[in-house]
Amino acid sequence: DKADVRQTLFSGFNPGDTHAGVSNLRYGLDNWVYATIGYSGFEGTVGGERLKFSTGLFRFKPDGSKLEFLQNTTNNTWGLGFTSDFDVIGSTANGNPSWYLTFPKADYVNAGVDQPKTPRADDNPMFFPISMDIRQVDQFDRYTAGAGHSFVTSTRLPDEYRDRIAFVCEPTGKLVGSFDVTRSGSGYTAKQLPNNLYSSADAWSGPVCAEEGPDGAVWICDWYNLIIQHNPTPSQASSGLAAKNGKGNAYETPVRDTQYGRIYRIYPKGSKDEAEPKLDPKTPASLVDALKHPNLFWRLSAQRLIVENQIKSLAPALKQIVSSNGPGAIQALQSLNGLGALDAETIKSALSSASRGLRRAAILTTVEGDTSTAEMMIRDGVVQGADNRELGEVLVALSKVQPSEKIGAAILATQKAKMAEFSKDGTLRDAWQIAARHHAVPILVAAAAMPPEVAQVEAPKLNLAPSPDFNGKAGEQPSGWTLRNYSGKKEDVEMSLTEGGRNGGTCLKITAKGPVDAGAGADIAVKPRTRYRLSGWVKTENLQNRGGMGALLNIHGMEPKTQAISGTRDWTLLQVDFNSGNDDSILIHCLFGGYGGAVGTAWFDDVSLTETSGSAATDMITPLASHLASKGTPEQKKTVVNAFAKRTDAYAKSIIAAIGTAPTAEVAMVRKFKPDAAVHERGSAVYARTCIACHGPDGKGVPGAFPPLDGSDWPVGDATIPIRILLAGLQGPIEVKGQKFQNIMPPHIDLKDDEIADVLTYVRQSWSNDAAAVDSATVKKVRADNAARKTPWTADELRPH
Questions:
Q1: Cα(295)–Cα(212) distance, rounded to whole angstroms?
Q2: What is the value of pTM for the model shown?
Q3: 124 domain residue, yes or no
Q4: Within a domain: residue 407?
């Protein structure tokens, strides 16, 4: 092959910031081209489908006919690698040198399950350079520019390296780290080894790519540049250098070299280059032979050429390789898939293989709608997987076949058989929900047929919520609960106890006449690393969102939260399951106007916080019933309700109640402050070049590193506070939405008054934020009033207690 053809497959990538663009284009084992992208993002139309995404992993068909976004990562993404079995693992900027793909976003969306960002695989983001002559701007002494994540797949390096050792570059540390990647539950653990593959004391060294070549050696591309940093742009105040941004949004400096680089090759002494096969599509036998090469590079190259040239005459030989279960079987199966010649019999043969990679390839290519193939993944009435990763992939595959009683019963039985694993493995739970929601009716009917003691497994656990029915009083307030106001005027919100609870007793009432984000909070002791369920009944009257989500329950400072309701709604059951992590105490909320603000009235009753760890078989069934309530047809809901109506136990009644709950309608956000399109266009441009690297395109920041702007009261309150932060910077600690952050935000005195006004207006009126615009006159005054300020602000200075 020669790179001698230039052709536009599709367009839509934003070139405004080159260090946040596309990288790591790789031909995948499934005949798609995989790539990563940073916050510059993509917006365009491919194959008739309008797409918009950023910061994550995507793939596209080699002919440009289809593009699919797979999963968001935590930041700019510069590393991607595949094992021979097609484990998909990569690296990002800002302290996450190893992450893994769970399942494609489309699988989550089709099931109505929220997709998490790529989970962390690495055990430690710190790095170990041999020289301290390093330059970093935000994440210090750790991987802040993790690039590449190539695995050893050939036989030239030691056997123990194969499909385990991955190389991750850190150009700011002048090193290439080695990570030992192993499977852990349904995910992976990447343990950083004590010795780097490459480490330099040369100040100019900056390795950005290290991967196995066609000869089996590791090839390292050294950018060889003194300045690795792209942004933030140094200013006179921050560094004594008044720099400016050039093309691609990188700051300009005379010591940034643009001409030279270095390439190194590493291999065991005395080892020979691996043989180079003569690949020739005109001689198809040469491609079949290359499918068995010991180096994945050549195996994939042969597969690509077979598919690219549509050599369908090879189908019989490829099927023979699959059935023989020998070298090249994975590539043979995927070649058949790419030729459109893969049949159910070949898939069934691969599903019974002893090869993990071949089984997984067959799982990923399961013929949609073919229940006979799907039923091969069931044995003794339980869905099978050699490990939890494979089990998760099988479950997701089952979401693509026609629902049946046999498959539904097996999915339910798997939940019972694997409850201990499900309780501690979020990715596996997601896979079960993706499968179960597709087969919801047969699963729920099967659950209804179980004896109550089997379905519920154990007696109800202790409710940890104080005064859950709000009958206890402490003065005029509910016992154990206090009003917490996070944004809006305190005088605009009122919390009280009132009659008219769900069962005729007392309940909690929250009323707001002005937009507030507030709630009743209760601090509760919990066990670390334990699963809990938070639930409660909520009713609303004329609750209008003003930037917030509505009325809901949440755990302060954690991602999990219940569904939110607004408008005028009767009593609705809301619930969420979560893991306490390392916390021994949490703050739960009956939340009003959460994550932005709202006006109106909400009532809360029968709040419950119970431990669900390990053995509670109902842990995953009730959310399934709630999903059916929202998405099922009347006939489907009637079928399940009739099945549970034959029982009289409390659990059956709770399922009937959940299914009988009216679907929660999506309520459009009502903005108090109407955005000015021209101002937002200018502000978005400033945000893209100044803020997006840390706070993200969605304003959600990076947990533990950079605070969120979406739903935070810091940017939307007193406008002079974010203005002062932009002018002088901010140093931690700072608490945002219950999370503490320690990083330093540099000043942006390079921004003009109108640019600060535009970007703050954009932030204050984007996502769930809804606050007044900022004008340049205000910025000018704040700049003049604080002209003597030379050091970053602290949270206490900006908000004295």
A1: 9
A2: 0.78
A3: no
A4: yes
CATH number assigned to the domain comprising residue 719: 1.10.760.10
Question: For 504-523, how does the pLDDT look when each residue is reduced to its tens digit (9 = 90+)?
Answer: 889 999 999 999 989 999 99
**Judgement on whether residues 517 and 408 belong to the same structural domain of the protein:** no
642 is written with which tokens? 């009739």
Angle (deg, nearest 10), helices 329-339 and 296-308: 20
Residues 195 and 226 in one domain: yes
Query: What number is the average pLDDT over the span 742-764?
Result: 89
- Can you tell me the distance from the alpha carbon of 281 to that of 277, in angstroms, rounded to the nearest whole number? 12
Residue 191 and residue 78 in one domain: yes
Q: Which of 55, 76, 79, 73 is nearest to 147 (CA)?
A: 79
Which DSSP string do the residues of 477-495 spell out, in sequence order? Answer: EETT-EEEEEES-GGGEEE
Q: For strand 793-794 and strand 730-731, is the pairing parallel, antiparallel, or unpaired?
A: parallel
**Whole-angstrom Cα distance, residue 531 to residue 529?**
7
Block residue for tokens 């003194």: 226
Task: Look up the CATH number of the domain holding residue 261.
Answer: 2.120.10
pLDDT at 614: 42
E strands, 123-266, are: 147-151, 165-170, 175-184, 187-192, 198-199, 207-212, 218-222, 262-266
**429 and 511 co-located in one domain:** no
| pLDDT one-digit tens code per residue, 138-170 | 778 889 999 999 999 999 999 999 999 999 999
Structure tokens at 777: 């006159």
Instruction: Show contacts of 774-777: CB within 8 Å, 24+ apart.
Output: 774/719, 774/723
Together in a domain, 576 and 495: yes
Helix axes 634-644, 650-660, angle to 10 degrees: 170
pLDDT at 456 over 60: no
Domain that holds residue 511: 473-614
Nearest-angstrom CA–CA distance, 69 and 44 = 12
Q: What is the pLDDT of residue 616?
A: 42
When divided into structural domains, the chain yields a total of 4
Q: What is residue 174's three-state secondary structure?
A: coil
- Strand pairing of 531-545 and 598-611? antiparallel
Alpha-carbon span 347 to 358, nearest angstrom: 9
Question: Where does 48-117 have alpha helices with state H?
Answer: 105-111
Do 709 and 585 reside in the same domain of the chain?
A: no
Is residue 667 a contact partner of residue 566, using CB atoms and an 8 Å limit?
A: yes
Question: Which of 37, 32, 44, 43 is closest to 17 using CA atoms?
Answer: 37
User: Phi and psi at residue 250, in whole multiples of 5°?
Assistant: -85, 140
Return the minimum-mean-pLDDT range out of 213-222, 268-277, 405-414, 445-454. 445-454
470 and 478 in contact (C-beta within 8 Å)? Answer: yes
How far apart, in whole angstroms, are the C-alpha atoms of residue 364 and residue 348?
12
CATH number at residue 590: 2.60.120.260
Enclosing H/E stretch for 610 = strand 598-611
CB contact burial 570-609 (16+ within 10 A = b; e otherwise): ebbbbbbbbbbeebeebbbbbbbbbbbbbbbbbbbbbbbb
Cα–Cα distance measured from residue 642 to residue 691, given in angstroms and rounded to the nearest whole number = 54
Tokens of 96: 């996450």
